[in-house]
Structures are given as C-alpha cells and as structure tokens.
Design goal:
Elements: H1 5-25, E1 31-32, H2 35-50, H3 54-70, H4 72-83, H5 88-101, E2 111-115, E3 118-126, E4 129-133, H6 139-152, E5 156-160, H7 166-182, E6 190-193, H8 198-206, E7 212-216, H9 219-226, E8 231-235, E9 241-244, H10 250-262, E10 274-278, H11 282-291, E11 294-297, H12 300-309, E12 310-314, E13 327-331, H13 340-346, E14 357-361, H14 367-370, E15 377-383, H15 386-396, E16 403-407, H16 411-421, E17 425-428, E18 448-449, E19 455-456, E20 463-471
Parallel strand pairs: 1-6, 4-5, 4-7, 5-6, 7-8, 9-10, 9-16, 10-15, 11-14, 14-15, 16-17
Antiparallel strand pairs: 2-3, 3-20, 12-13, 18-19
The structure holds nicotinamide-adenine-dinucleotide.
Nicotinamide-adenine-dinucleotide binds near residues 134 and 221.
Length: about 475
C-alpha cells in the first residue's frame, strides 16, 4: 500500500500539537498545522518586526539574500524534482536573481510638503500579515522575492504555495526564517502550512487577521483574490508575443527569442509565447532560430503535437442551434515545463544535441498561438506588414497587459506596438527576461501585477501610505 507522506506529517503535527499544548508545540520555522496557528504566529512576528529599526530590518533582508543565494541550487533541484517542470540551471539563475535584485528597504520613500502651514509627511507603512499565493512554475523564486519585498515593507507573510510545489516552498520558507532568526529577527515572519491545499488557501483568504492578499498565478486565483473583499494584488497570466519586423537584426532577434522562449522550458509568465514575423524576413528568422537551438516541425508533425500537448473539447451549443460545434483547446498540464527533447520524443523524433525549443509555422488562430502553453513550443506566424503584426500581437495578448517583446530598429514601429498593446513590460531587442533585470537594467520580481496595476511589484507595493501633519512648525525656511 502506498504511504501518503503528507498525510502522515499532518497527522503527526496535529497529534503533537494536542499532546504538548499551544506553547510547547509552537514551531519556530514558520510551518504550522492550521491556518489559525500560522496567522497568529505571523501576527506576533509582525509586531516584533515593527519594533525593530529600519537598519535592523535591512540586516534581516541581507541574511535572507545570503541564504537564498547559498541555497539557490538546492532549491532549484528540489523544484525540478518535485514539480517535474523546468530545468535546474535556469531555476538557479531565477533564485539568485531574486536574492540579489529584489529591492529592500531603500524602496520605501517618504514624501514631504513644507510651507507656511508647517510640514506634512507621507510614509509607507506595512499592511500587517499578507497572504501570498504562489505558483508551481517559480516556487522558490516567488517565495524569495515576495518574502524579501514584503518583509522589507514591514509585513509578515502567510504563504499558500501550490500543493504540487509544497516541499520546495516549505524548504525555502524554513531556510529564510532560519536566516532571519540567526540575524536577530523574530521567528515565523514567513509562515505556511505543513499540508497546503486549495481549501486552506481559501480559509486563509477569509481569515480576519489577513490584511492583504497577493496572488501570483493563473486567471482563476487572481479572480478569487479580487473577489475577496480585501485589498488584493493580482499577478496573472500572460501570453507574450514577440514581434520581429524587417528592420531588426534578424540573427540577433532569432538568438534572443530562442534564449527567452526556452528559458526554464518556457515557464516564466514573461517568456515569448508566439512569434509574429513580418513576411519578408520570416524565412531568414526561422533559419537563424534553427541555428541557435530551435527544431522546426511542420505539417503532420504539428497536428500530432496538438493531440499530445493540448486537450480538446467540443464547444457547448445552445439547444436548437444548427452550427457545427467548434473545438475548445486547453493545455495538457503533463507537458508544461517539459524539455524540448522529451516533447520531440513523443513525436518519435530524436532531438539533436543542443535542442532547446520546438518551432513551427502556424496561422494566427492556431491553438499554440492562442493558449499560454508554458512549454518550449513556439509558433511563428507570418503577417504581411507591421500593421497586421501590431493588430495580431494585441489580439493574442488577450488584454492581459502583461508582457510583449519586439525586435526592430524602427522607433515608430516600436512606439506604435508599445502604445497599442499597453503591457506592463515591453522589451525591445532583447530576450524577454531582460524585462526583469537579467541582462537589462532595473530590479527583479516574479510577481508582475498587470491586472491590478502595481506593475513589477517591489516593497512599496506592499505598503499603506500614511500621512502625518504638523501645523505651523518644522518648516525652516
Ligand atoms: P495556478 O493558477 O494553477 O496556481 C497558482 C496558485 O494559486 C497555486 O498556489 C494554487 O494552489 C492557487 N490556486 C489556484 N486556484 C485557486 C483557487 N480557486 N483558490 C485558491 N487558490 C488557488 O497557476 P500555476 O500553474 O501554478 O502557475 C502558472 C500561471 O501563473 C500562469 O498562468 C502564469 O502566467 C502565471 N504566473 C504569473 C506571474 C506574474 O507575475 N504575473 C508569475 C508567475 C506565474
């Protein structure tokens, strides 16, 4: 009989808690048996954090960064092993990126007005305890990034990780808590459950002592937090188009697109999900993409691949309607984040060494274009001119307002797409990941809040603005 390790751990934690009473059973590593216990511990920790100076808080952040950096490989290996998605070397980059480039307390900036009537300040204060829901696709990187950002802002956090990334998420929380305590901070600034479930995430969202919610995930969970009645940040799905026009450096565009789209097997929400190539350069672009590690499939192979990596259902037709039902496609989650060679193997193709990405030419309405695949499978759509390219890019981005990429030397073309598509991130002439600080300027985050408008979240996103006014004094000019 198979042993359910998770169930055993949960029952053991609950029995121990009952036997030993509340004080003796209180964990110090942030991992609790119930939502109530985790939230209570996080509240206590947040009050202790509030009593520390900003300088002391920054010391805790430094310790978190070091722990994340030291354990970047371990956490990457755990994430790939547990979720079966992505690859270790790219997850190491993600973990180190968040350790190094997530902003700290320097992001909290005070605004002041002074004049005849004295001095007024607006300072950025914490919310209290934040409920952070994290995805399977970046389990450790999201906990590191949100953990640093939320604590820098003065909060404690209750994490609801995806059950499929439980071990990696809890390990990350434990390592960061340990680093915080060793640096003189309170225990349990980051909390979670020994057995995280969707039901527990919903219980957490309704908990009166959770002050703010942050959902990093697909459209379902973003909608759920936005319907919670609490202040919520939604960092949702993307389907980033990469547009290439006739003025681009085609070889560089091809290399950049292959690098961005194959990074961590296409799991990042910002990764190129379809290419839109202006007619005259499309063949050259595809040839260069092949040179840099893309494997081109065509005809029957594309049809077979749809059967493998997608699910299809017949559209529901209203009674009496004579229209032929259309097929509604979804993604087959078994292939999310898998290696290109593994997917090609399912087509009976032995991938040449160095294959990072599968590419194919498709029409503009193909399911590979329309759906957010999160697999190293990249459709290339040829269009007649830049007008058609912009129209299609806007259409397939689905109004997510997440990320778009463009390769062009024509400033007018670049500006026109940027204005039309209104994405939170617009990357010009680089791989998509330059938009979160890999080979591009600017800080990093793995919580990109398009739907609620915070953009690339940073400590300031997790603060409340508080005004303090002193009348007729403290203006010294
Ligand atoms: P997912 O939506 O399946 O799960 C995300 C998290 O939400 C998990 O912790 C899951 O347990 C939880 N969840 C899902 N439905 C829920 C519900 N009804 N109630 C409570 N909790 C619920 O997503 P995933 O597969 O883990 O991650 C991939 C998705 O996340 C993609 O769509 C990707 O674009 C998006 N994503 C966005 C960002 C961003 O910054 N905008 C970052 C990473 C991933």
């Amino acid at each position: 009989m198979a042993i359910d390790q998770t169930l055993i751990e949960r029952i053991t934690a609950e029995v121990l808690a009952k036997m030993q009473g509340p004080a003796a059973s209180a964990p110090r590593d942030g991992v609790f048996a119930t939502v109530d216990e985790a939230v209570a511990a996080a509240r206590t920790a947040q009050k202790q954090l509030a009593a520390l100076s900003i300088e002391q808080r920054e010391k805790l952040i430094t310790a978190m960064r070091e722990a994340a950096r030291e354990n970047a490989r371990l956490l990457a290996e755990m994430a790939v092993e547990e979720s079966g998605m992505g690859n270790v070397q790219d997850k190491v980059i993600k973990n180190k990126l968040t350790a190094d480039k997530t902003p700290g307390t320097e992001d909290l900036v005070t605004h002041a007005w002074s004049g005849d009537h004295g001095l007024t300040l607006v300072e950025m204060g914490p919310y209290g305890v934040i409920g952070s829901i994290t995805p399977t696709t970046n389990p450790a990187a999201t906990v590191i990034c949100n953990g640093i950002g939320m604590i820098a802002a003065g909060n404690a956090v209750f994490f609801s990780p995806h059950p499929k990334a439980r071990n990696t998420s809890l390990k990350t929380i434990r390592l960061l808590n340990d680093a915080i305590v060793k640096a003189g901070g309170p225990p349990n600034l980051l909390t979670s459950l020994a057995n995280p479930t969707i039901e527990a995430a919903n219980e957490m969202m309704k908990h009166p002592k959770i002050n703010m919610l942050v959902a990093t995930g697909g459209p379902g969970v973003v909608k759920t937090v936005l319907s919670s009645g609490k202040k919520a940040i939604g960092a949702g799905a993307g389907n980033p188009p990469a547009v290439v026009d006739e003025t681009a450096d085609i070889e560089k565009a091809a290399r950049d697109i292959v690098s961005g789209a194959s990074f961590d097997n296409n799991l990042p929400c910002i990764a190129e999900k379809e290419v839109i190539a202006v007619g005259s350069i499309a063949d050259k672009l595809i040839a260069y993409m092949q040179k840099y590690g893309a494997y081109l499939i065509s005809g029957r192979q594309v049809d077979d691949l749809i059967q493998i990596i997608m699910t299809a259902q017949e559209e529901k037709i209203a009674p009496g309607c004579t229209d032929k039902p259309k097929k509604v496609y979804g993604i087959n989650k078994d292939y999310v984040g898998k290696d290109a060679a593994f997917i090609l193997g399912k087509l009976g193709i032995n991938a040449p060494a160095g294959t990072k990405l599968i590419i194919c030419e498709t029409g503009p309405d193909h399911p590979f274009v329309v759906e957010e695949l999160m697999m190293p499978v990249l459709p290339v759509v040829q269009v007649k001119d830049i007008d058609a390219a912009i129209d299609l890019a806007v259409k397939v981005e689905h109004g997510n307002r997440h990320t778009a990429i463009m390769h062009s030397k024509n400033v007018d073309h670049l500006t026109r797409l940027a204005k039309a598509i209104e994405t939170t991130i617009f990357v010009k002439n680089a791989p998509s990941y330059a938009g979160i600080g890999v080979g591009g300027e600017g800080y990093a985050t793995f919580t990109i809040a398009g739907p609620t408008g915070e953009g690339l979240t940073a400590p300031r996103s997790f603060t409340r603005q508080r005004r303090c006014t002193l009348v007729d004094a403290f203006s010294i000019v």
